[in-house]
Specification:
The chain is of the alpha+beta class. The chain has two domains: about 190 residues, Rossmann fold (3-Layer(aba) Sandwich), CATH 3.40.50; about 140 residues, Probable inorganic polyphosphate/atp-NAD kinase, domain 2 (Tumour Suppressor Smad4). The chain is built from nine helices and 22 strands. The chain is globular. The relative contact order is 0.14.
């Protein structure tokens, strides 16, 4: 369907797709106009707030003026109901995608090899993530946006800084497409309820960034290998039209890449009330929650001292980690920082959490793998001489002090990564390509084939 052009920075009503918009009215502004979305909760990095109060063990409850107790579930031991294989992952991804039902599944757990993508309704809104500051991706970005808008009649969402790129602004031929793009800004605009499919152009970092934009259900992700690393990007851009058309038709193989649900509990206020007969220590705690695809890294930061943190497993102290830090990663993150630190590489469909020390002081502490359903907790050791720092997929780095804790478990919101072939072939092929496995043997085989063809001729 031909679309009329509009002045730069403006989008006419007739330029919108003929398909009805099926997402809520709250959406990122168009390039023409729109109101700036206000930050929710003050700081966009703090995704979820929770205020708690505690009292010292053995003391009486402290009643607030309303008469309710200030005790919480965390102030007393409580048996946590869970399964070691981790939570059953959500099977609906975004507003329209889900896993194709499999009647042969056992105990409501599907065989990973049988996981197929299907659509409840035809997809309409596509988010295109492009690696920033890479001029080589400008042309692929324009190609796929033109294909989605003109040929597939899709509504395309991009970051505002991508749409405002000087190279795109100077391209008059791309102007009509650029004016029809919907833009958003990270931390200001909520796109979690209106995206049907994510297309990533770049390396593994683009998929990690796309995951960070969705702290709940994640739409299916189709990643094209146009960057330095290719562990998470199985598709080649040369055949993007055919591959994208197949995904729109549905019934594509997907890998559910588990994420970590991380809760950072920080002690921000300490009040001492000695008016009563017994002194009460009331702690106001702030909880910040994150969804992490690769790893949580706790390190010593700028300090010259070794970090000293305690590691708990389901409330029990397992060991104290003294060294440069510790990595808690998903199977997807096992081929990233964890592999560089000496950990094994684990297939994404293995339900597990990896704990890998970084240059440990005790050489007997080796990388370990625990079931996906357990809860890990990391705190500073009482005798630690300095604070620690924590980062989540290399982002949102912050300091951890005495009294703070980090709680980590497997999230029920995985990242549905669309496979090019299947989940086994794609993973081993990515390892062979990125780690240069059997390069010499492959070259010898190609040489043998070439020699045999020459002999026949």
């Amino acid at each position: 369907m031909a679309r009329p052009s509009a002045p730069p920075g403006q989008l006419s009503e007739s330029a919108r797709p003929s398909k009805p918009r099926e997402h809520p009215p709250k959406s990122p502004r168009r390039r023409r106009k729109g109101t700036r979305s206000q930050r929710r909760g003050g700081d966009h990095e703090q995704l979820h707030w929770e205020v708690e109060r505690r009292r010292l063990p053995g003391q009486h409850e402290h009643l607030d003026p309303s008469g309710s107790t200030s005790d919480t579930a965390e102030s007393s031991p409580k048996r946590r109901a869970h399964f070691l294989h981790g939570p059953y992952p959500a099977t609906h991804f975004g507003p329209k995608a889900c896993i194709l039902p499999n009647p042969t599944s056992v105990m409501h757990i599907q065989d990973p090899a049988s996981q197929r993508l299907t659509w409840n309704k035809p997809p309409v809104n596509v988010l295109v993530i492009r690696k920033i500051r890479d001029e080589s991706l400008v042309e692929p970005f324009k190609e796929i946006c033109r294909f989605l808008v003109e040929e597939k009649q899709m509504m395309v969402y991009v970051e505002r800084r991508v749409a405002d790129d000087a190279t795109l602004s100077k391209d008059e031929a791309f102007g009509s497409i650029r004016n029809q793009l919907c833009t958003f800004r990270e931390g200001y605009d909520d796109i979690s309820d209106c995206i049907d499919l994510i297309i990533c152009l770049g390396g593994d970092g683009t998929l990690l960034y796309a995951s960070s934009l969705f702290q709940g259900s994640v739409p299916p992700v189709m990643a094209f290998h146009l960057g330095s690393l290719g562990f998470l990007t199985p598709f080649k851009f040369e055949s993007y039209k055919t591959e994208v058309a197949k995904v729109f038709e549905g019934n594509a193989a997907i890998t559910l890449r588990s994420r970590l649900k991380v809760k950072v509990v920080k002690d921000i206020v300490k009040l001492k009330d000695c008016a009563a007969s017994e002194c009460l220590l009331i702690l106001t705690l702030v909880c910040v929650c994150f969804q992490v695809l690769n790893e949580v890294v706790v390190d010593r930061g700028p300090s010259s001292y070794l970090s000293n943190v305690d590691l708990y497993l389901d409330g029990r102290l397992i060991t104290s980690v003294q060294g440069d830090g510790v990595i808690v990663s998903t199977p997807t993150g096992s081929t990233a920082y964890a592999a560089a630190a000496g950990a094994s590489m684990i297939h994404p469909n293995v339900p597990a959490i990896m704990v890998t020390p970084i240059c440990p002081h005790s050489l007997s502490f080796r990388p370990i793998v625990v079931p996906a359903g357990v809860e890990l907790m990391i705190t500073l050791s009482p005798d630690a001489r300095n604070t620690a720092w924590v980062s989540f997929d290399g982002r949102k780095r912050q300091e951890i002090q005495h009294g703070d804790c980090i709680k980590i478990t497997t999230s029920c919101y995985p990242v549905p990564s669309i496979c090019c072939h299947d989940l086994v072939y794609d993973w081993f092929e990515s390892l062979a390509q990125c780690l240069h496995w059997n390069v010499r043997k492959r070259q010898e085989r190609l040489a043998d084939i070439s020699d045999s063809s020459d002999t026949e001729n």
